[in-house]
Specification:
about 180 residues, about 25% strand, binds coenzyme A, four-stranded antiparallel beta sheet, five-stranded antiparallel beta sheet, Aminopeptidase
Length: about 180
């Protein structure tokens, strides 16, 4: 189990107490736009329950993001094994979801750098990937700020996206190689 700290943020494992603020975040249509809209409490509880199991095995996962100054839950970020099969799997992804009022402060870039360092230094993964709906420009901007690069030949239609949400199917894939491994 892993806790990461940056100047403004802490990323630590999930607890049951995170369900309430995470549900509030997952009820915001703007935050959830690229995930098909707000999620029910049942779905959010099921997600947190599953992640609590997964983080034990993997040592880390997409984890709560806590603002040091206030102790407030402001979102989640982290690395995780990609849980579906695609041309680029098996792979470890980096991902994020932040409460709307905290966008534009550089928090995700800050914690993203800490997770990249953890993934490449402590875990020695060869590569990280990150993917997003093709027009999720804010998320793609984070990938680019963190040094990820894009080859359009890697893009894919996400099989888990239901057919009634065709505009959310096309995904871009970004990759970052571990510079420590020649
Ligand atoms: C994707 C998402 C996490 C990006 O959040 P974000 O706040 O734009 O990203 P960052 O935390 O890296 O912040 C960068 C912005 O903060 C600004 N900033 C302010 N202070 C900063 C600082 N100290 N350091 C770095 N950047 C700073 C940057 O200039 C940039 O501003 P801009 O958006 O005007 O270009 C957020 O939009 C989100 O949660 N979206 C909904 C969920 C989602 O789609 N997740 C991804 C699914 S693939």
């Amino acid at each position: 189990m892993t806790t990461l700290e940056t100047p403004r943020l802490i990323s630590r494992p999930w607890t049951e107490a995170d369900i309430e603020p995470f549900f509030a975040l997952c009820s915001d249509p703007e935050v959830m736009h690229y995930f098909g809209g707000p999620q029910s409490r049942e779905k959010v509880e099921a997600t947190v329950g599953r992640v609590i199991e997964l983080q034990v095995d993997f040592g880390v996962w997409l984890q709560p993001l806590i603002l040091k100054e206030t102790g407030e839950f402001i979102g989640m970020a982290g690395i995780a094994q990609v849980m579906f099969e695609e041309h680029f799997t098996p792979a470890v992804e980096i991902g994020w979801r932040l409460a709307r009022r905290h966008w534009g402060k550089g928090y995700i870039t800050e914690i993203g750098r800490a997770f990249i360092d953890y993934a490449f230094t402590k875990r020695e993964f060869d590569e990280l990937v990150s993917f997003a709906v093709h027009d999720n420009l804010r998320s793609i901007a984070v990938m680019q700020r963190l040094g990820f690069t894009h080859n359009p030949a890697d893009d894919f239609d996400h099989k888990s996206v239901p057919d009634d949400l065709p505009h959310l199917k096309r995904h871009v894939l970004y990759r970052l190689n571990n510079p420590r491994l020649g």
